[in-house]
Each structure stands twice: as structure tokens, then as C-alpha cells.
């Protein structure tokens, strides 16, 4: 919204800085950080009163988690409020990608909120029906991918109509796999998978939010480069007009995430809950689809992929053989059962996320 101030730079030249995505990204980060930091204590106090017993703790999980009983959940409301306010303030609201990303984020956030609400009110781990939840997520993600593949390209003027429904491959500059209408299904799968993978990762204090911020920083950079013809041409990546504005959204996410981490750092005063994890994963997935870097998301978010795979492998193995591959799934609990302390698991997983982000960034140049 503040980008309109640049229109008056003829009268006051310093206002010209509002034209630059980099400046507005920094502003979005700072705004979201201070918003969450300022309103966080009030939100936590309100949730603690309304939830009473807080998020239910699994009795069959690591015994150290029993001490967290009574900690409120739905901390994603803090992140989403800071993210939305900051984005509306600093992003160019005439850019359709901004609205698509926000709508997916809020849609997934509402699904997660309902799931958290059921868990808190019924004091059970069984929230929203899995099939119904996935169906709603697929509907939201599919609608967003239709807009990304067919509506926005006509508005923005793609240099190549084929790119709109194509899958790009990292490390290959000229390879495009045009899948046509099936791109919508592929994109929707990416968004839904990202949302649920982040959701599975959110099991320890600070474990999910830092890798999310690392991925957001990486994709903010990718979005900025993909939306800039000069940089995209130099790096020989595909130019997607308009996607640069999503760097502002990523900046807002980083700021809101840092504010949330202040309260989520061990011992956590509040949990993110499905409200936040589903929404943030959906946001990252949508940006990956829009920038044509879906496969790179699997690299940058490799930690989330590993967490999701550990659950899939565990369930499949138990159903087929009656045996478990891991002591407990998702895999972060497996390492806890091996004797790693919670801070060890969290910090080491953060390190893995940084390494994966660097590998993902290398795909921009190694072509």
C-alpha cells in the first residue's frame, strides 16, 4: 500500500525509495516483527484464559513433553496477524500474486484454526477429519494454481505461454516439461504437501519456525530474482513477471516469525499449532509454484520432506509388517527417543535447514 507514496517523489525525492522491493521488504520485516513483539503478550494471555488446559500433550510421547502441559496453542494467529498487516502495508496491492498468496495462507490458516479448536475444546489429538481437511486444502490450492497458471499470466504478459503450465528442473536452464492442465494438480499437490509437511515438523519448541524463516528468506530471494528480467536473464532462470513482489510477503513472514520465536523459544510460552504451520507451509508452496521453483522447494524444505517421509514410512511399515522403522514418528521424536535433548534436536535440525537452503540457492547459478 505504501508504494503509492512513490508517485509523489516528484515533490519529495526521498519518497522514491518506496518503488524498490528491497526497501519495502525490509520495512515489512521490521513492521511484522514489532507488531508480533508488541501484541504477542496480549494474544498469549487471551489464548491462555480461553483455552484453559491448552494443547493436549501425547502421553505416549517423550516424557519431557509432559512438563509442557497447559501451554496454549494457536500461536499461528500471532504470526498471521503480523504477516497480513505488514503485507497490506508494504506490498503493492495491485499485484495479483500478493492476493493469491494471502488467500491461500489465510485459507489454510482457517483450516488449521478449526483443527486446533477441536483439539483444545475436546482435549484430544484427533481434530478435523483428515479426508475433509485434505479436500478443503486441495480446493484452495487448486483454485490458486488455476489463477497462477491461467489467469495471472494473461494479466502479466508471460514471454512464453508455455511456461505458465510447465515444470522447470533445477540445474537445467533450457528444460521445460509442459504438462498442460495437469500443472494445476501438480501445483496443488506442492502446496498441500508443503502445508502438511511443515505441520508435521511443528513438534518441538522453535523447531518449525526457524526452518520456515530460512525457506522464506531463500524464496524471497528467488522471487526477487525471478521477477527481475535483468537478474533472471543473467542467472539464466525463467523470468516470471510480477513475482518479485512476493519478496515483500516473505519479508513479512520472516519478521512475524522472529517475533513469534521470541515467545516460542524453549520453554515455549505458546505453540504455533496447525493454525500457523499449515498456513506457513501453504504460503511457501504457493510462492514456489508461482516462481516455477517447485522442485527447489523440495530441496530447500528438505527437512520438512524428511519429517513427512518419516511418518509415511512409519505408517506403511506398521500396516504391512507390523513393525516400526523409527522409535517414534515424526523423525524429530525418534532422535529424542535415542537420547538427544530437545535443544540438540532443534539446533541440529536448524543447521540442516541452512545447508539445504544453500544447496537450493546453488541451483540458481549451477546450470
> What share of the residues lie within helices?
55-70%
How many domains, as an integer?
1
> How far apart are the termini?
37 Å
Poorly predicted runs = none
* Overall SS class: mainly alpha
Please list the strands of the largest sheet in the order they lie side by side.
1-2
Mean pLDDT across the residues is 89
Principal-axis shape: globular
Query: What is the count of helical runs?
Result: 13
Order of helices and strands: HHHHEEHHHHHHHHH
Number of strands: 2
Percentage beta strand: under 5%
Q: In a few lines, what is going on in this structure?
A:
The protein has 367 residues and is an all-alpha fold.
Describe this protein's structure.
The protein is an all-alpha fold and 367 residues long. The chain has one domain. It is built from 13 helices and two strands. The chain has a two-stranded antiparallel ribbon. A hairpin with a 7-residue loop joins strand 1 and strand 2. Helix 4 packs across helix 5.
How would you summarize the topology of this molecule?
Layout lengths: L20 H31 L24 H15 L5 H27 L7 H27 L9 E3 L7 E3 L3 H20 L7 H18 L2 H7 L10 H19 L8 H18 L3 H7 L1 H20 L9 H7 L4 H21 L5
Antiparallel strand pairs: 1-2
Structural descriptors:
single chain, 367 residues, mainly alpha, two-stranded antiparallel ribbon, 13 helices
Amino acid at each position: 500500500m505504501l508504494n503509492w507514496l512513490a508517485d509523489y517523489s516528484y515533490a519529495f525525492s526521498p519518497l522514491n525509495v518506496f518503488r524498490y522491493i528491497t526497501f519495502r521488504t525490509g520495512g515489512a520485516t521490521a513492521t511484522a516483527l514489532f507488531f508480533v513483539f508488541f501484541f504477542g503478550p496480549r494474544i498469549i494471555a487471551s489464548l491462555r484464559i480461553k483455552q484453559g488446559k491448552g494443547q493436549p500433550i501425547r502421553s505416549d510421547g517423550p516424557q519431557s513433553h509432559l512438563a509442557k502441559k497447559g501451554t496454549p496453542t494457536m500461536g499461528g494467529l500471532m504470526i498471521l496477524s503480523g504477516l497480513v498487516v505488514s503485507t497490506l502495508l508494504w506490498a503493492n496491492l495491485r499485484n495479483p500474486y500478493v492476493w493469491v498468496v494471502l488467500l491461500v495462507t489465510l485459507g489454510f490458516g482457517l483450516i488449521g484454526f478449526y483443527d486446533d479448536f477441536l483439539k483444545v475444546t475436546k482435549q484430544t489429538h484427533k481434530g478435523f477429519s483428515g479426508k475433509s481437511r485434505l479436500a478443503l486444502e486441495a480446493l484452495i490450492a487448486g483454485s490458486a494454481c488455476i489463477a497462477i497458471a491461467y489467469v495471472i499470466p494473461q494479466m502479466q504478459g508471460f514471454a512464453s505461454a508455455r511456461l505458465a503450465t510447465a515444470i522447470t528442473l533445477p540445474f537445467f536452464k533450457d528444460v521445460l516439461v509442459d504438462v498442460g492442465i495437469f500443472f494445476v494438480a501438480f501445483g496443488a499437490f506442492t502446496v498441500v504437501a508443503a502445508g502438511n509437511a511443515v505441520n508435521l515438523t511443528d513438534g518441538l519448541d522453535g523447531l518449525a519456525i526457524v526452518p520456515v524463516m530460512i525457506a522464506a528468506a531463500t524464496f524471497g530471494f528467488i522471487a526477487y530474482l525471478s521477477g527481475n528480467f535483468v537478474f533472471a536473464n543473467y542467472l539464466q532462470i525463467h523470468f516470471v513477471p510480477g513475482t518479485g513482489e512476493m519478496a515483500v510477503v516473505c519479508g513479512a513472514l520472516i519478521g512475524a516469525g522472529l517475533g513469534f520465536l521470541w515467545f516460542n523459544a524453549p520453554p515455549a510460552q505458546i505453540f504455533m499449532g496447525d493454525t500457523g504451520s499449515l498456513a506457513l507451509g501453504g504460503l511457501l508452496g504457493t510462492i514456489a509454484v508461482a516462481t516455477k521453483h517447485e522442485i527447489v522447494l523440495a530441496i530447500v524444505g528438505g527437512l520438512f520432506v524428511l519429517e513427512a517421509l518419516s511418518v509415511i514410512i512409519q505408517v506403511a511399515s506398521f500396516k504391512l509388517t507390523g513393525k516400526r522403522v523409527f522409535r517414534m514418528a515424526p523423525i524429530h521424536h525418534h532422535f529424542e527417543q535415542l537420547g538427544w535433548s530437545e535443544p540438540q534436536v532443534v539446533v541440529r535440525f536448524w543447521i540442516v535447514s541452512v545447508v539445504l537452503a544453500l544447496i537450493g540457492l546453488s541451483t540458481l547459478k549451477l546450470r
